Amino acid sequence: MVMVGGGINDSVALSTADLGTAVSQGIQVSLQSAGAVLVRSDLLAVPEAVLLSRQTLRTIKQNLFWAFGYNTAALPIAVAGLLNPPISAFAMALSSTLVITNSMRLARFDPRKTISRGTSNRRQGTGITGL
C-alpha cells in the first residue's frame, strides 16, 4: 500500500504504509515518518519514484550477481596459484569498473519514458500503468 501525504494527520498512515511518501512542503513530522519524500509537489512523481526504485533494485541485483560470480570463479584459481597477482589486481579493477559502469546507467534512466510507453506491468491495486 502506498500513502502520499504531507499533513500532521498523515504521519501515522505514512509510517505504517508499505511505502509512505511525503510531499516536501509538508509538516516536519510527516517528512520524518515517511519512507520517501517528493522534492516537487507533483503527484505524478510518485509512479516515477517507484519505477526508479525498482530499476535501482534491479541494478543492485545485477551488480551483486556479477561480483559474486567473478569472485566465485576467480578465488579458487587464485588460491590454487594459477593467477598472477598483477593479473588478479587488474581483473579485480575491471570487475569494479564494470559494476560502476552498470550503476551509472541509472543516471540515464527516465521513468517518464517507461510510463509514456504504456508498459503493462500493472501491479495489483496500483491502478497506474507502468507500476
From TrEMBL:
<keyword id="KW-0812">Transmembrane</keyword>
<feature type="transmembrane region" description="Helical">
    <location>
        <begin position="64"/>
        <end position="83"/>
    </location>
</feature>
<dbReference type="InterPro" id="IPR023214">
    <property type="entry name" value="HAD_sf"/>
</dbReference>
<dbReference type="InterPro" id="IPR036412">
    <property type="entry name" value="HAD-like_sf"/>
</dbReference>
<keyword id="KW-1278">Translocase</keyword>
<keyword id="KW-0472">Membrane</keyword>
<feature type="transmembrane region" description="Helical">
    <location>
        <begin position="89"/>
        <end position="107"/>
    </location>
</feature>
<protein>
    <submittedName>
        <fullName>Uncharacterized protein</fullName>
    </submittedName>
</protein>
<keyword id="KW-1133">Transmembrane helix</keyword>
